[in-house]
Structures are given as C-alpha cells and as structure tokens.
Please model this.
Amino acid sequence: MSGMGSHQSHKMLNDEWLTPPELLKKLGHFDLDPCAPIKRPWDMADHHYTREDDGLIQKWFGRVWLNPPYGRETVKWMKLMCKHKNGLALIFARTETKLFFETVWDHADALLFIKGRIYFHHVDGTKANANAGAPSVLVAYGQENVEFLRTCGVPGAFFRLIRENREWIGEPQS
Model:
C-alpha cells in the first residue's frame, strides 16, 4: 500500500508504489511504515504494517514514514498522522484540496515542496517509466521532523508553518 495510484491515469491500476531509495536515505531513520507493501526490495522503517496488518487499525509508534495509498484512502492515513504527530508524509502537492486543509494546513509543522516530479518504484524495485504525474510534497509533523526536512538536502522549497491568526510564514530553501 505504500505509494500512489496509477501514474498518469484517473483509474487506479496499482496502489503499491515505493518511495525512491535515494529520497528515503536523505530523510533519516524511521521506526514505522504503517502502509508498506507485503513484498519490498528495501525497508522504509524498522517496522512495517502491510495490507494484511491494516495499518489504519494498528497502534502507531515512534517516527513514522507515511507514503499512503493515493486516492480516496489518503485522507484516512493523513488523519492518523495528524493524531500521531511524529513523522513525515509524502503526498501530492495539491494545496487547494479538502485533504490539504484538513490534514496539512491546520496540523503540519513544515512542508518541503519537492523540485521536479518523483519517479516511484514498482514493488520489484524497478523504477517506473513515468513520473508521478503531479508535484509532491513532504509534510512534517513534530519539531524534530521540521529539522529533518530543513536540512535533508532534498531539492525544493522548505516552509515552516507558523500559525498566528491563521497566517503562515514561508522560508525558501535552495
């Protein structure tokens, strides 16, 4: 379940896509991936919940890596991340959506809008032929994760979210 829907199609062809290992390496150590594929060529965290475990009903712990199934299920995973408040999530950068307003703008601590589009990997480890089809953003929950994003070296634009009278202040990153 770790990943996104079909790359450039409205029809969900596959909901198991892996985060590129070079991106994961820059983000530090994770204790849990609650929506990992059953078979995977690399681990995203020390512990994994798969489709068989149903990470939506399991207890989350430690620093969480969340690359949720993209589509209608994304909001369920993101709401759990809001409650957990310790980890990083990788989602599409669709900032105007209800999902973003419900789980990011009012709950996250920082954002890193990734430069370019990600090429996810198939569960056998091979890189997808097409990019994700939309821009992606890393979303930090918890102050330690803000620092991970700020210093990780992933190209993009970093924004620390400061909520004063519902205004947000951004900080560019090269």
About this structure: Confidence is low (pLDDT under 50) at residues 1-13. The first helix runs from residue 21 to 26.
